[in-house]
Amino acid sequence: MVASCLQGCGLPQAWRGQEAWRVLDTRFARGFNFLSTWQAWRQDPQRPRMLHYVSVTAAPLGIDELLASSASCPELQLLTEELAMQWSGLLPGFHRLTFDGGHVLLTLCVGDLTAMLRAQQFAADSVYLVSDPADTPGCFPTSHWDVWTAKALARCCRRGTMLVAPMNAAYWYADLTPCGFEMAADPVDRPKNSPAITPSPVLRAQFNPSWTIKRTRSTMAGSLMAVGRCAVIGAGLAGASVAASLARRGWRVQVLDQAHTPAAGASGLPVGLLVPHVSADDCVLSRLSRSGVRLMLQQARSLLQQGQDWEATGTLERQLNRSPGSPDLWHPQAAWLKPSRLVHAWLAQPGITFQGDVKVAALRQCGNEWELLDAQDNVLHRASRVVFANAGGATALLESLQATLPALDIRVNQFPVMQGVRGQVSWAMHNGLPDAAFPPFPVNGAGSVVPRVPIDANGGQGLAWFVGASYQPDDQPATPDEMNHAANLDRLCKLNPKLGQALAGQFAAGAVNTWKGTRCVTADRLPAVGPLYQTEHSSLWICAGLGSRGLSFSMLCAELLAARWSGEPLPVDAGLARTLDARRGSPRHRNQLDRSLELQVSCAP
Ligand SMILES: Cc1cc2nc3c(=O)[nH]c(=O)nc-3n(C[C@H](O)[C@H](O)[C@H](O)COP(=O)(O)OP(=O)(O)OC[C@H]3O[C@@H](n4cnc5c(N)ncnc54)[C@H](O)[C@@H]3O)c2cc1C
């Protein structure tokens, strides 16, 4: 079946010449179908730039079982080991695993098949309606199948999508035919030199309904367009991650910033924490931050130098605002990271150019292009698509568009209100203090301490500690630095009294350094990602409002934006993705959001 899936879907020939190929697999099992599709992609010199593989599993295998399964298929062993490196934390929901520099994306959906299909927002090019032959021989996922599954599956297909299924699955066809699938007369035989685990031949079907396909639920669709040139305003975590995600898909991206160098805003933070939010009810923020942290850790591993630019230390979360005696939380999937290193690494990807010292003051439409203008109306740049990734600076651009281009119907009040919130970090070198004074990992709670960060100092390297951070809306008069330092020491004393005592002398002597920045925070503490106007036609997009979690959210937002531009599977389920939509303030959008959340609840396993 493994090789027959590829053959039955006409692969690899069918994907040649395409920018991206999207496979939907209804049962991940031991992952042989994924691994062999990935292997075929690797071996094909004419492969598409992006391979998306979306697969559903009711319960993922344990890592030992996953690794053991490759014994029956040694040619897939190396790929299995790569997969195993990301095989952790697979709770119910969507998980995006990234391979081959982000060109192979596995979206593993853990849950009931029908619910997981309903939570998709893309059209597959190939569907594998199969079980894994090495799973339980002869046992197909009948328990997960009914007519509603067939309907949900059809919703994930475009006209021409090829589907392969086991020969003995006749009653599936009774459900699939009324949903628009036409059976192909020629079953694919088992290829002669396919692995020994290959069982019976497969049947093939094509999605070709006699009716017009309506996309009534494609509210997250972007305006699909061929890759070309685009501009991103802002060179912080938001702008650089968007640029990298788009460039990986073939876009030529010009990033513009008013500052001379990248990461001059909040992303100039010397070190930040990458920690998932955890809540008893696994709320939207928890699920989004979990997805975002997974994506960010993958970026850190592939682009940064561990131990210098970041370190996967884990983090201890103190429950200081909870009832006394609440146990602390250990986050194994947590790290400290220097944001500007990542910004520079992203901007160094092929296809991206950076231009500093340019403040975009307005935009003007010129045919199919946008002109980016400075305050004197000089054209700074032209592009067919523009992304506002300039944090709080986006509001002025939105207001200018609302005033100058009323036809676009951009209303600032449709977007979440974005508030600047100042923050100050206190930091210094270890300065001969005993190593034992510093905890081995960061501690957070009300504030945070990152105790051991290697930095360049005095022509050499040394360890520094960082404590933060103050949190003060920027419409209030700024608090003096000394008061912020005192408040940071107070935070430290609560998080780690022993270290607080050890560093109190440095604070008292004024021997601590200051770093200050402004976060761009939305009222609901979620980023704003999406088109600025009418979804189907918008060539202006926004990715802003990362708040205090730019490290957790930037890559997730960038991948979400890029997926919407390219009609790809989303990195999170459609309901969660909608909670981030930039126009969530508009009444129409609020209704859609409510409906999608209701749907999510009704589909919950
Ligand atoms: C004190 C403090 C501590 C923090 N700690 C953490 C942490 O531990 N973990 C975490 O995840 N996050 C943390 N954050 C938040 C994190 O730093 C931000 O979420 C993130 O950096 C935001 O990235 P951004 O790209 O949206 O904004 P920015 O980095 O501010 O980038 C916006 C860019 O847009 C440019 N710009 C603005 N307007 C224009 C214009 N008109 N034309 C051209 N360019 C323009 C600016 O120059 C700037 O470079 C902290 C923030 C602060 C202030």
> What is the CATH C level class of the largest domain, in words?
Alpha Beta
Number of domains: 3
What is the name of the CATH topology of the largest domain? FAD/NAD(P)-binding domain
Give the overall silhouette. globular
**Helical coverage, percent range:** 25-40%
Content-based structural category: alpha/beta
Distance between the termini: 29 Å
Strand content: 25-35%
Round the mean pLDDT to the nearest integer and report it: 88
β-strand number = 28
Stretches where pLDDT falls below 50 for ≥5 residues?
132-142, 190-199, 596-605
Number of helices: 16
The biggest sheet amounts to: 8 strands, mixed
CATH architecture of the largest domain: 3-Layer(bba) Sandwich
Structural commentary:
The protein is α/β, with parallel strands linked by helices and 605 residues long. The chain folds into three domains: 2-207, Rossmann fold, CATH 3.40.50; 223-417 and 523-605, FAD/NAD(P)-binding domain (3-Layer(bba) Sandwich); 419-520, D-Amino Acid Oxidase, Chain A, domain 2 (2-Layer Sandwich), CATH 3.30.9. It is built from 16 helices and 28 strands. An eight-stranded mixed β-sheet has the order 3-4-2-1-5-6-8-7. Strands 13, 14, 21, 22, 23, 24, 25 and 26 form an eight-stranded mixed β-sheet that branches. The longest helix is centred in the middle third of the chain and has 20 residues, at 284-303. It is globular, with a radius of gyration of 25 Å. Residues 132-142, 190-199 and 596-605 have low confidence and may be disordered. Bound molecules: flavin-adenine dinucleotide (FAD).
Summarize the structure.
This protein has 605 residues and is an alpha/beta fold. Helix 1 packs across helix 2 (32-43), helix 9 crosses helix 14 (550-566) and helix 12 runs antiparallel to helix 13.
